[in-house]
Amino acid sequence: MTLEQLCNKIDLKKMSQFTDKEINGVFVSDMISDVMAGAKSGNLWLTVQTHKSIVPAANLVDVSAVIITSGKQVPPETIELASKHDIAILSTDLPTFEIVGKLYAIGIQDS
User: Fold this and answer.
1) Rounded CA gap, 20 and 4, in Å?
2) Neighbours of 35 (CB within 10 A)
């Protein structure tokens, strides 16, 4: 499944400009060190973190997208940096637990 297909299946708001990518799993953590050690290329990274540091971490691991959960507001400087580096930032008002359930229901699971 691609990011575009995902956004059409579940209600995710596109925050940054990005190239469509394939999704191959999910990684959930609010700690950047966990993401750098455990996320895999092509994963969706679910977090409530919104600061600029999520962009280099996402880029380093080559995640397909960062999904900001729980309706957290993403600062403009984070969105701008993500767009500059072709990092997909998506958002949802749903809490992390609920969005994980939706992802699982449409067939996206931990890789």
Assistant:
1) 6
2) 23
Name the one residue in this structure whose structure tokens are 């890789």: 111
Annotated domain spans of the chain: 3-105
pTM for this prediction: 0.96
CATH 3.90.350.10 given to domain 3-105: no
Pairing of strands 65-68, 43-47: parallel
Does the pLDDT at position 11 exceed 90?
no
CA distance 107 to 5: 12
- For 43-69, write each residue's pLDDT tens digit: 999 999 999 999 999 999 999 999 999
Which distant-in-sequence residues (6+ apart) come within 8 Å of 91 by Cβ?
A: 12, 13, 15, 67, 68, 69, 71, 72, 74
Report the pLDDT value the prediction gives residue 111, as an integer from 0 to 100. Answer: 57
Nearest in space to 86 (alpha carbons), one of 61, 55, 110, 57: 55
